[in-house]
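ok trying this again, last paste got cut off
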Amino acid sequence: VVMSAVQGVVDGFNQGMMQMTPPLGVRSESVQSQGVRMIDWLVPGILGMSIMQTGLYSSAAFVTMREKKVYRRLAVTPIKRQHIVISQVLFRLIFGFLQSVVLLTVGYLLYQTPVRGNILLLALIIATSTVMFLSIGYIIASVAKNEQAFEPLVQVIAMPMMFLSGVFFPIEFMPPFIRPVVNALPLTYLNNALRAVINNAMGLAVVGTDLLVMGVWLVLSMIVAIKVFRWE
């Protein structure tokens, strides 16, 4: 430590005597110096929570239509079942994008929370997570026998993610024994990716792992949803 300090002083004297400006330098800048406030940290978490709720609760329409025998009547029409599913997914995806735009716009207008990262990467994260939670919602819709049973099942899944996935406070504050549960929740990776892009302008190299985990969740939940989904 002493040698490093002495070397720094000597280098400073040498540069001053030789009137030379070093061509390269190192400058550290903390996250706080970039203007990241608590509200800036909260906005991506609230966005992640809204995407989760949109995906999970949107599948309630399938329970309602199944309970009212709508699908049974559609079965005798030329409409194919996969077209119904695709139309519902596209509608929820568009709705998810609009919801995200509104939330981020409100965050910017009211709290001056900017989106520092790449917009296309952010759109990819929103699209992947929306379809992922929608697939999980379809699984719940298949298990629920009616609308009354659907709501409690969604709450059982949504509430732990709201409080354990870093929506309102950092997961680093949580005790170590609960970390395995936190690391298994899909909303954890969505919040990490959203904050990395929105707050810190990180690229695909940083959020790639989060996208990969969400992609695995999407594929597995879609496979299960296809296997267990009931039209009647």
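PB: full thing came through this time. The CA atoms of residues 117 and 201 lie 4 Å apart.
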